[in-house]
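Dear colleagues,

As part of the handover before I leave the project, I'm documenting each prediction I ran so the next person doesn't have to rerun anything. This entry is a single chain, and its sequence is reproduced below.
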Amino acid sequence: MERRVLLAISLSFLVLFGYQTFFPPPPEPTPASTSSSQAGSEASPPAASGAPSAAPGLTAAPASSAAAVTSDTVERQFVIETTTVRATFTNRGARLVHWQLKAYPDASGALVDLVPADVPNQPLPFSIGLESSGASEAVNTALFVVEHDPPATVNATASPAALTFVYEGADGLSVRKRFTLQPAGYEFSALIDVKRNGAALNPKLLWGPGLGDEIARSAGSGGLFSGNYTYPAAGFVDREGKFERWAGAKASSAGVQQGAFRYAGVTDHYFVASTIDAAQGQRVEFAHLPVTSQSEPPTTRQFVTFAVTFDQAPGELRFFLGPKQFEALKAIDPEFTKVIDFGMFAFLAVPLLGALQWVHGFIGNYGLAIIVLTLLINLTMAPLRHKSVVSMRKMQEIQPRLKAIQDRYAHLKMTDPARAKMNEEVMGLYRESGANPASGCIPMLLTLPVLFAFYALLSQAIEIRGAHFAGWITDLSQRDPWYITPLLMGASMFWQQRLQPGTGDPVQQKVLMFMPVMFTAMFMQAPSGLVIYWLISNLWAIGQQYFTNWMIGPAKGVAGGKR
């Protein structure tokens, strides 16, 4: 079999292996069915019960019977409105009930709420864990007093605003929590001061189950061939510049992580909850939490719970709770951008994202921005593609002479030293004609890193989440629901193959004709933005092929210049 045939086959497997190796589907954890006993507990919403029993390191216990010395008599909720978030706190346990992002709608069109509201028996964010489950239950269900009697809705769009909650129990336990939000952005600070009889305690600070992205929920979990690009939630830490991540079920196997973590928290596909710049040592615990719905058909959502204990009684701590938007994360710290998992092609994905955002700033449509950026990329690669076509044409022209050389030595075994003479003649023919059998594939090989980088970009960047293109393509981060663009992409590949110079080898022709079929099947479930990129690249290649064929004319010694 000729070298070009082997090269084409190898390239086909390279593409398949590359996708599955560099972008494997996330592991599918074993669904956890809700037991009948658990179902009974679901009748009480988390905001009311606030039971921290399923959080890392805590077990359920009856509430403490100690009578409160300083507490409220009625449960109240308070809202802080900033330009970017709508945060709702309850005085029951002084915890976060809702964290709604004004710039990001969910699948139903409502604001994304990063505090899941339908996960039973889980603690709300900023619940605390003490030395006993009874003490934890007492604090997390106590009705705190809110200082300065603020209104139900606090306006923080022009200046920072804070809510301070206090509680004192008859057992000498006192708790003070203060949450401060800035007018813009997704950072906030939390002061957690817990004392018993005047002595400072160092409680666990709990972030209940994961993050509540409805688009992520509707997509489920899967990979390249599964039709969705939402991955399980993950726990992470930044340990002295080394970013470590434990996704899905692996979060539970991470065990207890200890160190002076710069960042530590949980992340899902598009959002993150994390401590920021915590200089003191931390003890971090993650736990995987699959939750199976009672709907028909049942669906399983993947969460990761998060608990952190600081080495010293914490002062005022900084947190980030918001989108994995590259510029927002970079503004905090370039190191923090690692929460966006661009993989090994981040060195290409990041500048491509910047270029895409720049083009989008002029056009206002990410689908059109992808098309424009694709054209610019192909324009820069046009000289290489031209050189490739010229080289392939030369290979086509020398095929009769090359076959004659091969036929003269066909009777020799592969191990026969005399075959070295054949190799010398073949290389001499290549030098004489200026042909290079590898140059025809080099441009395609060069495009593969860009392809993988685009895959990482379009499957991870929140800018693409829910981005409408036109017509039936309403989300560039998800597959084409009607499979129109993948079919067009496959047809364009077939058309492109017919235009390329060939040798007339029937085996090679079958291999090359199989590639459009393989790519079409592979791209059926790819993000529609990625398919658009590949389709436009193929159309550009077709146009350039026609132009190059017109420039160089028909192949010499080949009837009509055709294969």
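Confidence is low (pLDDT under 50) at residues 1-68, 214-229, 559-563. The chain has two domains: 3-23+357-398+435-561, 82-341.

All the best with the project,
I.
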